[in-house]
Design a protein that fits this description.
Family: Belongs to the D-isomer specific 2-hydroxyacid dehydrogenase family.
Number of helices: 11
GO molecular function: glyoxylate reductase (NADPH) activity; hydroxypyruvate reductase [NAD(P)H] activity; NAD binding
Order of helices and strands: EHEHEHEHEHHEHEHEHEHEEH
Oligomer: single chain
Protein name: 2-hydroxyacid dehydrogenase
Keywords: NAD, NADP, Oxidoreductase
InterPro entries: D-isomer_2-hydroxyacid_DH, D-isomer_2_OHA_DH_cat_dom, D-isomer_DH_CS1, D-isomer_DH_NAD-bd, NAD(P)-bd_dom_sf
Length: 314
């Protein structure tokens, strides 16, 4: 039986690629002129696309694949896919919710500890020989008892809040609407949440409505003793305002796993000892990456069998 054709937008683990090849004629990933040549020559044959949350699928790609039926995202984020456009084209979009919640929440706590207790900075302090030479060790700040603001109380936001309960009982949140049954006080705006918090954790979903939700005013409300942790999407934070606040001492520190133009990061952040940077690795454990791949395969298998994919977004 002829296998359906699938376009891979980004490189994924070898085991996953092998699983795809058992089910599909796999093409890609392509870049530049090679991609355009493929669309022109074989684009009409493609019925399925697999991408990642950070890569998404451009509308130009969707429009170059007239036979496309499904886009399966290896990740929970689908803000790099124009969902209304996909829906109008009759294209099903799926993602991989739940499986990465724990890892991303764990990283939020790790970044908080790394910033407040200067873990990365003091690692460099030892390796550079500064401790051995008798230089005074810089002090960090306590996490226990801190006031924590969670911006976005979805699956990941709730998981982060539960973890912070081991450190403090002073937890509040803001989301588009109050969450029924949430055990934490609700703040009516991102700015009022920042004014409350010592540590502001950005866990909201992405998308146009969340773009630069954390702007200069929110950062000013967080203040010179405040710390920003972002495991959400880079575009949720006004990156220029963040760099300025850190450089001018108007913010105490930041732990960042996401950036506005990945993999590019503001070089001004590289030299800042009070900033901890990660290369968008919230879900980057062997166990979770395999679970994500298996979830993509479950969605594709359901589609191949004519069933409703379990993680359909549109």
């Amino acid at each position: 039986m002829t296998k359906p054709h699938l376009l891979l937008i980004a490189a994924l683990p070898p085991w996953f690629h092998q699983e795809l090849e058992q089910r599909f004629e796999v093409h890609g990933p392509f870049e530049g002129a090679a991609a355009e040549a493929f669309w022109a020559g074989q684009g009409a044959q493609v019925r399925a696309v697999v991408t990642t949350g950070s890569h998404g699928v451009a509308n130009a790609v969707l429009d170059a694949l007239p036979g496309l039926e499904i886009v399966s995202a290896y990740g929970v984020g689908v803000d790099q896919i124009d969902l209304p456009h996909a829906k109008a084209r009759g294209v099903t979009v799926t993602n991989t919710p739940d499986v990465l919640t724990d890892d991303v929440a764990d990283l939020a706590i790790a970044l908080t500890l790394a910033v407040q207790r200067r873990i990365a900075a003091n690692d460099r302090f030892v390796r550079d020989g500064r401790w051995e030479s008798g230089e005074r060790v810089p002090l960090g700040r306590k996490v226990s008892g801190s006031r924590v603001g969670i911006l976005g109380l979805g699956r990941i936001g709730r998981a982060i809040a539960r973890r912070f309960e081991g450190f403090t009982d002073q937890i509040r949140y803001h989301s588009r609407n109050p969450v029924e049954g949430a055990p934490y006080p609700y703040e009516a705006s991102a700015e009022s949440l920042a004014a409350y918090a010592d540590i502001l954790v950005v866990a909201t979903s992405g998308g146009p409505e969340a773009r630069r939700l954390v702007d200069a005013e929110v950062l000013a409300a967080l203040g010179a003793q405040g710390v920003l942790i972002n495991i959400s999407r880079g575009a949720v934070v006004d990156q220029d305002a963040l760099v300025s606040a850190l450089a001018e001492g108007k913010l105490a520190g930041a732990g960042l796993d996401v950036f506005e133009d990945e993999p590019n990061t503001p070089h001004a952040l590289w030299a800042m000892e009070q900033v901890v940077l990660q290369p968008h690795q919230g879900s980057a454990t062997e166990e979770t990456r395999r679970a994500m791949g298996e979830r993509v395969l479950q969605n594709l298998d359901a589609w191949l069998a004519g069933r409703e994919p379990p993680d359909r977004v549109v």
